[in-house]
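Protein folding task:
====================
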Amino acid sequence: MLQAAVSSADYQRGVALIEKRDYAGAIQTLARAAAAAPRNAQVWKALGVAYAASGDYRGAATAFEQSCNLDPRLLDACFYLGQAYYAADQYEPAIAAFRKALPLDAKPWRVRLGIAKALEALGRSEEAEKEFVAALRESEYAEESAPVAYGVFLIRQGRLAEALAPLAKALKRFPGSAAANLEAGRALLELGRTDEAVRCLETAVQAAPDSTQARLLLGKAYTRLGRDREAQQQFEAARQGSLTAR
């Protein structure tokens, strides 16, 4: 949530429109506020949030770049810039923005995750892994995102058994995590450890019943165990979920 720290009426109105999910109205109003106060980093950040929420990541990057350049110490300004560039498939600029945010961010591990994902997208896997490991070390498993992201990276590298180590640590601390259970279930299923995979995937579905991936993988696991009726139920639920999401 944005803090209304600027007195401009357009800024206040724009923030309120974001809260109401009227992103088009927020963009129009905040663009007017930015034109009136072009040196105000907070206004540009709010405009970037509105663009990002609307799915316009290039517009978001333009606004966040203004905010980050004007005040790199403004909470999340440079981090959001990196995220916007990443979402727009502009990985080199994303890395540059994240590196600018790194020494200033209260949670540097999340910035390292951003760098790692951008490096992976560029095919620079060795560099990416160093950043994933650094993120794990700095986060000390305080949140699930770092170990889950590293686990996903290892799965994509085909290193399934290795992926289970960070995922198991995440599950020990966050046993009900939908993401950690999903990825652990994925790795276990590929390793042929189907019974264990089912336990993880059932938990993932319970935690996130709208997850098409979790239901499809659970259906696949049930099929391997000859539990065809249960498998069909999961496949049908996944199909219905994908239709609803359209």
Remarks:
- Confidence is low (pLDDT under 50) at residues 1-5.
- The radius of gyration is 21 Å.
- The first helix runs from residue 9 to 19.
